[in-house]
């Protein structure tokens, strides 16, 4: 475990002027939150450290602030669902907060529906005394989250709920996994089509060079030698094409954050709409194993594509090819 931070999760309504929005209110300890999350490094305005206990400051997501029309320094009213029981009936619990910052993490769900306040202010507003909703853990290896969660379940009480990042947005990660599989199939089909182009190119070359092949055969070239000539030609085409494709793909993947916005501005379109997708930017993380696998498959298909045309060239009959020469 790398770090831990307590938090309070609650629902609420934010009101500013004529605008009202339902939000997820999260009470955090700024110094500890910085160690488990990267919100502090994604502040568009203000600082996360401005959440000081007793001052009732609040930090909003960028889309939420835009929807409310609020900016740093404005005062909002937070309405908690827990009411106050009075002789006149149940009254809503209201508290005025000052906007101390605006963050933009690039995930629409958080940018449009998350508001951060200090954990002590959240405990006072929601009458939680010194209790918290939970503790967030940050691991040195994020892929160990499932094992850590299982270990905690066996150690903690039965009424404690344990969840990891793979469960929080399970549908999103399943969709990404399915997309990756489908993209692998599509990429394989694209490489296969390119390999068929090698086949057609070599078949045309064999047809066009039949007389030359016949002359080489009459000079003593063996069928195996003729076959090797065309296999070398096909493999060279495959190797050069694979190297160019891998270099171009890596260059595009490393600069996707520049290329995609340029295309969006050029065509005046938005590939990832904030209202539809979880994310607003197209991420790219080239994996060495994926690149090597794709390159090896491309080279293997290129080699297989040369077998039939090369075999056909080796079967050319010199007498038939030179009959009309």
Explain this structure to me?
A 6-stranded mixed beta barrel has the order 1-2-7-4-6-5. It starts with a strand and ends with a helix. The chain has 2 domains: about 170 residues, no CATH class; about 150 residues, no CATH class. The model has no long low-confidence stretch (mean pLDDT about 85). It is elongated, with a radius of gyration of 32 Å. With about 325 residues, it is of the alpha+beta class. A hairpin with a 2-residue loop joins strand 1 and strand 2. Helix content is about 50%, strand content about 20%.
- The run of helices and strands is EEHEEHEEHEHEHHHHHHHH
- Counting DSSP H or I runs of 4 or more residues, the number of helices is 12
Query: What's the pLDDT, averaged over the residues?
Result: 84
Class computed from helices, strands and strand pairing: alpha+beta
Ranges where pLDDT stays below 50 over 5 or more residues in a row are: none
Sketch the major β-sheet. 6 strands, mixed, barrel
Number of strands: 8
* Biggest sheet: strand arrangement: 1-2-7-4-6-5
What separation lies between the terminal Cα atoms? 80 Å
- Specify the helix fraction band: 40-55%
Please tell me the total number of domains: 2
User: What proportion strand?
Assistant: 15-25%
**Structural shape:** elongated
**Rounded to an integer, what's the Rg over CA atoms?**
32 Å
